[in-house]
Design brief:
about 375 residues; alpha+beta; four-stranded antiparallel β-sheet; disordered N terminus
Length: about 375
C-alpha cells in the first residue's frame, strides 16, 4: 500500500492567495478612484515618440502627438492635440492657432489661422518637406479675450516661440522629429526584444526538456512536455504584457495597472508550475510509474490550472471586446487598434488555453489511475 501523505510538497497556495488578494485590492482601488485619475490623452493610441504634455496656468493641460507616430518627409501626417481641464475632461469652443517652425533655420514654415474648435481633441494634416526637427506651437486664446477680431487671422512669426506678449493667449511649444527610417528601426528593436526574450525562455525550457528526455533514470513523458509548453506560453504572454503596459498609461492609468497585474499573474502561474513539476518528481514511485500522482498534488494542480484557464479566458475575452467595442473606461468612442503585440499575445494565450484544458483532463485521469492502483482512497 502506498501512502503519499508523508511526501513533502513545497506549498504555493499561500503566496497564490496573497497575490490574488493584492491584485484584487489594487484593481478595486483604481476602478473606484478612476474619477479622480486624469486621462493623459484622448488619442486613438498612446505614442512613445513625438509626443508631449504642457500645463497652461491652473486650468488646462495640452497634449500633442503625431499620427503616424514616426512621420516621414513628403508624406501626409496628422498633428493631434488634446486640450483638457485638470480633471482630464475635454474643453469646448476654444479659439486656437497652430504654427510650425523649423528648428534648423528658426523660420516659420506653416501657420494655421485662429479658429474655433468645438472640442479639445482635434488634428491638423500637414506634409513636412524635409528630414529634421521641428517645433509645433499651439496658441490658446484666453477666455476673457475678444475672439471676433482675430478669427481667421495669422499674426507675424515670433523669435521667442513661448512669448505670449501682445497676444492675450497661452502658447505651448512641442518638439518633433521627422525621419525616413527611425520608426522602422525602433519598432524592429522593440518587437525584436520581445521575441528575443521569448526565444531565450523557450530555449532554456527546451534545454531542460531535452535533458530530461535523454535521462535514463527519469525521462520526460509527453504529458510533462505539455507542462513545459504551458510554462513557456504563460511566461511568453507575460513578457508581451510587460512590453506594452507603459504605452497604455497615457490613455488610462488603470490600463497599465491591469496589464501589469495580468503579467504578474501569468508569471506566477508559470513559476508555480515549475515548483509543481519538481514536487511531482519527488515521488519515488514516479521512477517506475510516471502516471502516478498524489491527492495533494492533484488538488494543487486542479486549483492552479483552473485559475490559469479562467484568467486566460478573461484576457482573451477582454481583448476581443476591446477590438470590437470601445473598452471600459476608454476616453475614446471607438475600439482599440489591432496591433502585432496583441496578435502575438493572444495567439500565445489561445494555445495556452488548449494546453491547460489538456492538462486538466490528463491530471484527472492520472489521479483516478493512482486511486485505482493504490487501493487507498485517501492517498
Amino acid at each position: 500500500m502506498i501512502n503519499c501523505r508523508s511526501i513533502p510538497f513545497k506549498s504555493f497556495t499561500t503566496p497564490l492567495i496573497i497575490i490574488i488578494a493584492i491584485t484584487l485590492f489594487f484593481s478595486f482601488f483604481f476602478l473606484n478612484s478612476s474619477i479622480d485619475i486624469s486621462v493623459y490623452g484622448h488619442f486613438s493610441h498612446s505614442a512613445h515618440y513625438n509626443n508631449g504634455q504642457i500645463g497652461i496656468g491652473n486650468e488646462f493641460s495640452i497634449f500633442q502627438q503625431m499620427e503616424p507616430e514616426y512621420p516621414k518627409p513628403n508624406d501626409t501626417s496628422y498633428i493631434q492635440f488634446s486640450i483638457q481641464d485638470k480633471q482630464g475632461r475635454d474643453v469646448s469652443n476654444k479659439v486656437v492657432m497652430v504654427e510650425i517652425y523649423s528648428t534648423l533655420t528658426n523660420e516659420r514654415i506653416a501657420a494655421f489661422p485662429w479658429t474655433i474648435v468645438e472640442i479639445g481633441d482635434f488634428q491638423i494634416p500637414f506634409i513636412f518637406p524635409k528630414i529634421g526637427n521641428y517645433q509645433i506651437v499651439l496658441s490658446l486664446l484666453n477666455n476673457e479675450a475678444n475672439s471676433e477680431e482675430i478669427l481667421n487671422t495669422v499674426p507675424p512669426p515670433r523669435a521667442l516661440l513661448g512669448d505670449s506678449s501682445n497676444c492675450n493667449c497661452e502658447r505651448a511649444v512641442f518638439n518633433i522629429s521627422i525621419g525616413e527610417s527611425f520608426g522602422f528601426i525602433f519598432i524592429t528593436v522593440i518587437y525584436g526584444s520581445i521575441l528575443g526574450v521569448i526565444l531565450i525562455v523557450g530555449s532554456v525550457l527546451a534545454w531542460m526538456f531535452l535533458s530530461r528526455r535523454k535521462s535514463k533514470t527519469n525521462p520526460i513523458s509527453n504529458d510533462e512536455f505539455i507542462k513545459y509548453s504551458v510554462l513557456f506560453l504563460a511566461v511568453g504572454a507575460a513578457i508581451v504584457h510587460l512590453a506594452v503596459y507603459s504605452g497604455h498609461a497615457t490613455l488610462r492609468l488603470e490600463y497599465s495597472i491591469f496589464l501589469l497585474s495580468a503579467a504578474g499573474g501569468q508569471l506566477f502561474y508559470g513559476i508555480s508550475y515549475i515548483f509543481l513539476i519538481f514536487s511531482d518528481d519527488r515521488l519515488s514511485i514516479k521512477k517506475t510509474d510516471k502516471k502516478f500522482i498524489s491527492k495533494e498534488y492533484y488538488k494543487k494542480s486542479k486549483i492552479l490550472n483552473s485559475i490559469g484557464l479562467a484568467g486566460s479566458l478573461v484576457l482573451i475575452g477582454l481583448y476581443i471586446y476591446s477590438v470590437t467595442f470601445p473598452p471600459p473606461l476608454s476616453p475614446n468612442a471607438h475600439p482599440e487598434d489591432v496591433d502585432l503585440a496583441g496578435i502575438i499575445d493572444k495567439s500565445l494565450e489561445i494555445i495556452l488555453v488548449i494546453g491547460i484544458i489538456y492538462l486538466i483532463r490528463t491530471e484527472k485521469r492520472r489521479y483516478l489511475y493512482s486511486r485505482e492502483i493504490s487501493g487507498n482512497r485517501n492517498l
